[in-house]
Structure formats: C-alpha cells, structure tokens
Amino acid sequence: MPGGHLTHQDRQHIASGLAGGLRYAEIARQLQRPTSTVSREVSRNGGPHEYRADHAHQAAEQRARGRKPTAPSMQAGVDAYGRDRK
After folding, report:
1. How many CB atoms are located within 10 Å of the residue 30 CB?
2. Quick one: which of 59, 48, 58, 56 has its CA closest to 26?
3. Is the dihedral of CA 71, 76, 80, 82 positive or negative?
4. What would the mean pLDDT of 30-56 be, rounded to a whole number?
5. Helix 8-19 and helix 53-65: axis angle, to 10°?
C-alpha cells in the first residue's frame, strides 16, 4: 500500500465514491489505502454527506502548515500565569 499523504486526486476519488454510494472499504481498496485512512479523511472533513474534495484538500494543506507560533507578548502573560500558579 502506498504511504504518505492523500493527493487531491485521491480526495476526488473519495468524493466520487461517496457520491456513488460506495462504502469506505471499497473506496480504500480502490485507492490501495487502509479503510481507516478513508474513514478519518471523511470524518474530519464534513462526513459522508458533506465531503468535498477541494475543501478537504485545502483544509489538509492548512493543517500541514501547523499552528502559528504564539506572539511573544502573549507568551509572557502565559509564563507569568504559570509561575503564579505553582
């Protein structure tokens, strides 16, 4: 089975499979991916009735960029709060 991230084409295949009434296991078999990969992808992107490939791909790219670092001024307040609580 291929590893790595789902491609936009994979997500389009998932969307068309869902629209065609396929089960997660069948979509996963066609993509040569674990069923859990398809299940998680669909559940984190709106569920089987709301899944959209373009939106899911854009959301995955944003998640891959990671969280933005906390601003230094905000971090100072968090540090002071943590010290006061000990």
Report:
1. 14
2. 48
3. positive
4. 97
5. 140
As given in the structure block, the two tokens for residue 1 are 């089975």
Residue type, 66: G
Q: Which pLDDT tens digit goes with each residue over 66-79?
A: 876 776 665 655 55
Q: For residue 56, what are the contacts with CB-CB under 8 A and spacing of at least 6?
A: 11, 14, 15, 41, 45, 46
Q: How far apart are the first and last CA of the chain?
A: 49
pTM of the model: 0.74
Q: How far is CA 24 from CA 6, 41, 43, 45, 74, in A?
A: 15, 10, 11, 14, 43
